[in-house]
Amino acid sequence: MPARLPPWQARPSRDASPRLRRGRPQGGGSGIPGTIVVVPTRNEVGNIGVLVDALSALGLRALVVDDASPDGTAAMARLHGAEVLERRGAPGLGPAYRDGFAWALSGGYDTIVQMDADLSHDPADVPRLLAAGADLALGSRYVPGGGTRNWGWRRRALSRFGSLYAQAWLGVPVADLTGGFKCWRADLLGRVLEQPLVSDGYAFQVETTLAAHRLGARVAEVPIVFTERTEGRSKMSLAITVEAALRVPRF
Ligand SMILES: Nc1nc2c(ncn2[C@@H]2O[C@H](COP(=O)(O)OP(=O)(O)OP(=O)(O)O)[C@@H](O)[C@H]2O)c(=O)[nH]1
Ligand SMILES: [Mg+2]
User: Fold this and answer.
1) What is the pLDDT of residues 72-123, one digit of tens each?
2) Ligand 1 near 201 CB (within 6 A)
3) pTM of structure
4) Are 93 and 204 in contact (CB under 8 A)?
5) What are the sequence ranges of the domains in the chain?
6) Total Cβ atoms within 10 A of residue 132
7) Cβ(120) – ligand 1 distance below 6 Å
8) How confident is the model at residue 170, as a pLDDT?
9) What percentage of the chain's residues is helix, strand, coil (to nearest 5)?
10) What is the pLDDT of residue 226?
11) How far is the CA of 231 from the centre of ligand 2 (A)?
């Protein structure tokens, strides 16, 4: 097995370092300098091109963090002009985010957005997150104006219960603790990643928001409507949900 490189050397898609390319918009729009959108992917070939193009039209650059997707997600992302970090070794949402965030921080970006690849998070909402003026702006389904689209009652109940459960255990005044659409100021994200985080899976979302809160960050919730994916398959399962739920009391 090849030696594991630091994430920012682990086969970025193109020659230039993120520092050199920082803030240069890929497409139309006025561009949003200093901002990068980190997108973890596992078999999202049907979604990633659409997302990267939509971000690009807003002047936003994307870093796709792919876990060896056999469906060609990485190549598709590159084709659409995204930076691509192809991870090797143990897959997982937490490690993928860690590597993507380390890449972004080492590139000198001052604002780091994270969002899912499956278009459940609307790229058109990113400017509102950026405008919230918080250390951490959360795309929130559970504040007035927010919600979910095309979810059955089971999925709605599970998600709502998950957030309330985490909120009750942790005593954090955040309505949507489990979402993965977030906008970080780089200095806060760097401090959060220095904390002894224990989650590898979906609980990573809860743990990082909790860490931000404990560090005294200004956390804002911006209403978003989360739309069920129409392409590709969900990686969410009962096992993943239970694993995340069992983590929470240990934070
Ligand atoms: N790099 C990487 N990305 C992952 C992994 N698991 C999931 N993802 C990505 O993380 C994002 C969220 O995963 P989803 O399967 O959409 O999970 P979800 O949004 O909670 O569940 P659904 O609502 O059912 O789609 C997507 O962009 C996935 O491709 C992984 O192990 N590694
Ligand atoms: Mg999803």
Assistant:
1) 999 999 999 999 999 988 888 999 999 999 999 999 999 999 999 999 999 9
2) no
3) 0.86
4) yes
5) 7-250
6) 17
7) yes
8) 86
9) 40, 15, 45
10) 95
11) 10
